[in-house]
Amino acid sequence: MNVNEVIKYPVLTEKSEISRSGQNVYTFVVDKRTNKIEVKKAVEFIFDVKVLKVNIINYDKKPAKLGRFAGFKNAVKKAIVYLDEKSKIILFADEAKEDKKSSDPKPDKKVEKSLSAAELKAAEKIKKAESSKKMSKSEAAVENEESQSKPKSEAKKADK
Fold first, then answer.
1. Which of 40, 106, 118, 119 is most buried, by the most CB atoms less than 10 A from its CB?
2. CB atoms within 10 A of CB 150
3. How far apart are the C-alpha atoms of 52 and 40, rounded to whole Å?
4. CA distance 82 to 26
């Protein structure tokens, strides 16, 4: 069986959240045809963690009613995965943000200064572009002529 087909989704209940945060134990709904070895390989491959052991629980189909119609709820296979103390699986985006904040060192002041200088230059360019859009065409043409005439005169001075 393909590694990506083994795990269907994580079980998110109060009990699984308590075990996940305190004991480093995760619960997943897995494919009915899988076994413990395949689940262990899949979790280690997908999440890049070290798995200590895997327990599997098979839930049979249950009778269910919807109004007058009788049927069954689907059978499910759950895997309880125990991870090494150093390993951690990030299931939510919030956890990833917290993990990055705690692991990233603060940037140097020199880097901040160079970034702010680049930002200032970009802001000046934006202001110039906005002001040129606001000017009428004639004013922009006059300004262009002045800027073009200055380098020519400077070039003549340099030749002498």
1. 40
2. 10
3. 9
4. 7
H helix intervals, the chain: 3-6, 14-23, 36-47, 93-103, 109-134, 137-159
Which tokens go with 70?
């009788």
Burial of 36 (0-12, 13-18, 19+ CB in 10 A): middle
Taking the C-alpha atoms of residue 11 and residue 27, their distance in angstroms, rounded to an integer, is: 5
What SS3 state is found at 34? coil
The predicted structure's pLDDT at residue 8: 96
CA-CA distances (angstroms) from residue 50 to 12, 24, 44, 90, 135? 21, 11, 6, 14, 65
Q: What is the pLDDT of residue 129?
A: 75
83 token code pair: 């991870």
Between CA 94 and CA 60 the distance in angstroms is 34
Tokens linked to 108: 């140097």
**Mean pLDDT per 10-residue run, the chain (160 residues)?**
93 92 93 96 94 97 95 96 91 77 58 62 76 63 62 55
pTM, 2 dp? 0.59
